[in-house]
Amino acid sequence: MYRERLVATPVTTPSARRLQQVLLAYHDFRQHKNGHRLLGDTFTLAQWQAERLKATHQDLYNHPGYHTGLEFLLTDLYAPTNNSGRDDNIDRVFPKMVKWLPDNQLDTFAGLMELNLLTQRLDLGLVEVLAATNKDPGALTEDAYCEALRNSKCMEERTRQITLVAEVGRQLDRYVRNRTLGWLLAISRGPAEMADLTDLHSFLHRGYSAFRKMEDVERLIDRLVARETRVLDNILNHHAQPFRVPDEL
Question: Which residue in 108, 171, 164, 145 sits closest to 231, CA to CA?
């Protein structure tokens, strides 16, 4: 719907250009995904993976200093729902973003959108592998999931996904420590509603609030990366309990 606006917007910095390219790729992917016969299966798979992540990181998820942030990660950043309205609004305000936001914030947003795009691409690829072997995502077992992931042959992309989680998480943590951002979100609620950007504004406000409440984000990210790297290695090596990680991680 807003592809022409993305293409027509002048960009003059590497970060703005990166964001433009990611948003264009994500726009085109969403059109492809929304017409895909396995669209519903991607939501089912996302729900399964969200529950798996909660189980693997249950101690962190239940920790009062981390719970809100991880809940935002699993329900907003990695949500098994359709966020087409929010995503369209991002495309719509792109010209204003490149005009008003500093370059480092554009780069952070580009990383966030790249992570979103990569995750959805991996999910769609995985449900295609499952469908090819007549596996139902609604009755997915750990063994079937691990076999499908190995057969998808996307290990470089999986590693990139973990790297992006770390990069974006650290950048977001730096920005939410800036009280000015909270003030801007507070005073922009009314204008956002008038511009029909309520869902995008709510998403940003939830993310800001979640990260502001988190303790020692650097430590959390280090543990998430170490654990998910171990899980990926476990899957590749046919570990009997691939989603269990040592207590010290």
Answer: 145
In the block, which residue shows the tokens 């469908």?
131
- The 8-class DSSP code of residue 73 comes to I
Report the chain's C-alpha Rg in angstroms: 19
Helices H / strands E in the chain, number of each: 13, 0
SS3 readout for 62-115: CCCCCHHHHHHHHHHHCCCCCCHHHHHHHHHHHHHHHHHCCHHHHHHHHHHHHH
Which amino acid is located at 48 in the chain? W
Overall average pLDDT of the 46-74 stretch: 89
Between CA 164 and CA 159 the distance in angstroms is 9
Of the candidates 59, 56, 60, the one whose C-alpha atom is nearest the C-alpha of residue 241 is: 56
Helix or strand (DSSP H, E) at 47: helix 39-56
Beta carbons within 10 angstroms of residue 141's beta carbon: 9
Q: Are 15 and 106 in contact (CB under 8 A)?
A: yes
Q: Residue 72 — very low, low, confident or very high, per pLDDT cuts 50/70/90?
A: confident
Across residues 159-163, what is the average pLDDT? Answer: 93
Q: Of residues 95 and 238, which shows the higher confidence score?
A: 238
Query: Any idea which residue has 């449900």 for tokens?
Result: 127
φ/ψ of 102, rounded to 5, equals: -65, 160
For residue 144, what are the CA distances in angstroms to 18, 39, 137, 234? 36, 19, 9, 14
pTM of the model: 0.88
pLDDT of residue 56 exceeding 50, the answer is yes
Report how far residue 123's alpha carbon sits from residue 34's, in angstroms, rounded to the nearest whole number: 13
> What pLDDT, on the 0 to 100 scale, is given for residue 183?
47
Q: Which two tokens stand for residue 229?
A: 């790297």
